Amino acid sequence: MAEGSDTTLTAEQTAEPAPNGLVSGIKSFAAGHGGAKAVIEYVGKRGARIVLVGADGAWGDQFADDTVTAREACAQAGVTVENAWERELMDQMRPSNDLWRSMARRTMAR
Question: Angle of helix 20-32 relative to helix 67-77, nearest 10 degrees?
Fold first, then answer.
């Protein structure tokens, strides 16, 4: 592109601080489960889903307005963000008995 072009993209984005409630929710999950890793999923107009996987295998999620806010919240909470669902991370997840029951009800209802 020509020097000084107004269509030049830059990789710099100034991230605003993430909402305190989101950061505290992520910190609380990580503290309660011996640490955590996160995977951020874009979910369209709804924003971004932060799936947290605890060191003990428990998992949960939080929602942010967008992926930039989600990454910033994880950074402020000290949680590592994985770029994709790696096999090791998926193997670490341990669904609760309640989740298994709810999935079974959905299958049986079809």
Answer: 50
CA torsion 95→98→99→102, rounded to 10°?
160
d(CA 4, CA 106): 57
| The pTM of the whole model exceeds 0.70 | no
In this predicted model, what pLDDT tens digit does every residue of 45-61 receive, in sequence order?
889 999 999 888 888 88
Residue type, 12: E
Residues paired with 81 in a beta bridge: 38
Local structure of residue 95 (DSSP, 8 states): -
Domain residue spans of the chain: 36-109
- 29-60 exposure pattern, b = at least 16 Cβ within 10 A, e = fewer: bbeebeebbbbbeeeeeeebbbbbbbeeebbb
Q: How far is residue 20's CA from residue 27's CA, in Å, rounded to a whole number?
A: 10
Which residues have C-beta within 8 Å of that of residue 65, sequence separation ≥ 6? 47, 48
Report the candidate in 99, 51, 86, 49 with the shortest Cα–Cα distance to residue 69: 49
